[in-house]
Design goal:
This protein is α+β, with helices and mostly antiparallel strands. It contains 11 helices and 5 strands, in the order H-H-H-H-H-H-H-H-H-E-E-E-H-E-E-H. A 5-stranded antiparallel β-sheet has the order 2-1-3-5-4, with helices on one face. Strand 4 and strand 5 form a beta hairpin. Helix 8 packs across helix 9. The longest helix is centred in the N-terminal third of the chain and has 16 residues.
Length: about 210
């Protein structure tokens, strides 16, 4: 399936909440979710009037929400779930930690980009280094102790500068360390689920894939 290239605000409306897919603009612009609090499409208002959703619908919407926040295809997301289910620990917690450990997400968390989509583009265009070597795979799994940096020739990119200087930029998480001037960050330790500010019920995703 091709990557979605339509208006991202439609994805937010479909999930009924802000997913912050447009980065800083989500904080400064009036969001369509507030103006039209129903799913997109001609049947959107009718869906909004339905009071009760089935168990399957709740599980599916939670999976779609998390998948869209991190910008993954279904196959990528399912493979990540299989990995989370194959290692020790709670599958739901493992899944969220694995999502957070992706290189594109770490670049976003450091503030080098305004959104995960923009971070993915920085990685794809070979502007990011991991431990001194260029990595152009957004799904690269970052480990504790790894150093992530913007390569020397790209440190003054307008995209990076504007993102780091934005007033609405989220605060740095305590399991990450950043030298903003040098454009170098490090994963201090592997995060736990409690360290990740994601409003999601990952157990619903586990139940959906376990059927």
């Amino acid at each position: 399936m091709a990557r979605y290239t339509g208006p991202v605000c439609k994805l937010c409306r479909r999930e009924g909440q802000k997913l912050f897919l447009k980065g800083q603009k989500c904080y400064t612009e009036k969001c369509p979710v507030d103006r039209r609090a129903y799913p997109p499409g001609q049947h959107g208002p009718a869906q909004a009037r339905r009071r009760k959703q089935s168990e399957y619908a709740l599980q599916l919407r939670e999976k779609q929400k998390v998948k869209r926040i991190y910008g993954l295809h279904e196959k990528q997301f399912r493979n990540l779930f299989k990995y989370a289910n194959s290692i020790a620990g709670r599958t739901g917690d493992n899944l969220i930690v694995a999502l957070e450990s992706r290189l594109d997400n770490i670049v976003f968390r450091f503030g080098f980009s305004a959104s995960r989509g923009q971070a993915r583009q920085l990685v794809r265009h070979r502007h990011v280094e991991v431990n001194g070597r260029i990595v152009d795979v957004p799904s690269f799994r970052v480990s504790a102790g790894d150093e992530i940096s913007v390569k020397p020739r790209s440190k003054d990119l307008l995209t990076v500068e504007s993102s780091l200087g934005a007033r609405t930029r989220p605060s740095l998480l305590d399991w990450l360390a950043l030298d903003e001037k040098a454009r170098v960050g490090r994963m201090v330790r592997q995060p736990a689920r409690i360290d990740i500010p994601l409003a999601a019920q990952e157990q619903l995703i586990v139940e959906l894939y376990s059927k």
